[in-house]
Amino acid sequence: MSFFRTAILTTLATSIAAPVLADEVNVYSYRQPELLQPLMDAFTEETGVQVNVAFLNKGMVERLKAEGKRSPADLVFTVDISRLSAVVNAGLTQPVDSEEMNSNVPADFRDPDNHWFGLTTRARIVYASVDRVNPDDITTYEDLADPKWKGRICTRSGTHPYMVALTAAHLHHHGEDATLDWLQGIKANLARKPQGNDRAQVKAIWAGECDISLGNTYYMGKMLANDEQKEWAASANILFPTFENGGTHVNISGVALTKSAPNKDNAIKLMEFLTSPAAQEIYAAANFEYPIAPGTEPIDLVKSWGDFEADAVNLMDIAALRPDALRLTEVADFDG
Ligand code: FE
Q: Is residue 85 predicted with pLDDT exceeding 80?
């Protein structure tokens, strides 16, 4: 923590205006408190505004609905466009018109109506056995359905939001029939029924159960930082597939202002602080993600995994295609 703290204070000290009246901002977060706290502390240090973070496991939409106008929440933090758009679609947010945020957050990574803003991205990529897979053998997501991978792929459930978003991206590029074929092709290549989380698939590569898996980039960093999981990480390379005629699938973590925000001015101040390039870099570093403001860079470890071109599809399109993607996943009986 002290590393982040020092970094924040030295990086941001010059860019933040003078302190204002002591006040507060209330945050509901699906993100782990330890990812948020260093930046919240820096914000408090600079502005005198106290930030109270309530960590939620689930039920954010239901809770905000139940609390209605009396909700103490000003901001919601979450990962995945599906969760951000769920809060927006439930009518629980309000737009934020901020020139600063519009210039810090590229258009692909914010709501065209300004109801949500991305803070970091992560790519959904292939983990491939260092020993058993030639990196040139898998360059596209479409390749995953090639019979050459028969019995060699591991994955988590096809109904998990990370997988549904990837399938929605395939649907965007190729349409229904091709997407159903793709899902069935991957299913036919699986070494075992979908199970476990992204890291469990890399463990299976390490154990020799399969040769490639799908996972988010930051799990490589998390495994390397874990004594037991270090070996799993060392057994796999990160490969950045693209869609044919497209780029690498990315998703975001982001923030939205609630409709009933009791501390709106301070909440917007916190949003502007968090979308600033320096804060994005620190926030991204905490979870081995990519900052998105122009000119920002991830940490060296993340950079060492390689460069990629993010798929240009707008994330709102991905969110809109989710129900169809989920239905196709069920038609393919992907998890069965
Ligand atoms: Fe995750």
A: yes
Task: For residue 218, give the H/E element and its range.
Answer: helix 218-224
1 pLDDT above the threshold of 90: no
User: What spacing in Å lies between the alpha carbon of 235 and ligand 1's midpoint?
Assistant: 20
**Beta carbons within 8 Å of 168's beta carbon, 6+ residues apart:** 318, 319, 321, 322, 324, 325
20 has a pLDDT exceeding 70: no
Ligand 1 centroid to residue 23 C-alpha, Å: 32
Q: How far is the CA of 48 from the centre of ligand 1 (A)?
A: 32
Q: What share of the chain is helix, strand, coil (3-state, %, to 5)?
A: 45, 20, 35
The model carries a pTM of 0.88
Strand partners, 51: 25
CB within 8 Å of 66: residues ≥ 6 apart: none
Report the candidate in 325, 333, 204, 279 with the shortest Cα–Cα distance to residue 12: 279
CA of 270 to the centre of ligand 1 (A): 24
Residues 6+ apart with CB under 8 A from 154: 190, 191, 192, 201, 204, 205, 209, 210, 212, 213
- What are the tokens at 63? 């809770």
Cα 290 to middle of ligand 1, angstroms = 14
Mean pLDDT of 77-105: 94
- Taking the centre of ligand 1 as the mean of its atom positions, its distance from the CA of residue 196, in whole angstroms, is 12
Rounded distance from Cα 249 to ligand 1 centre (Å): 15
Ordered domains of the chain (ranges, CATH):
3-120+250-298 (3.40.190.10), 122-249+308-331 (3.40.190.10)
Name beta bridge partners: 253: 79, 120
DSSP H helix total and E strand total for the chain? 14, 10
CA atoms within 13 A on the CB side of 276: 19
Q: H-helix or E-strand containing 39?
A: helix 33-47
Say how many C-beta atoms besides its own lie within 10 A of residue 185's C-beta. Answer: 18
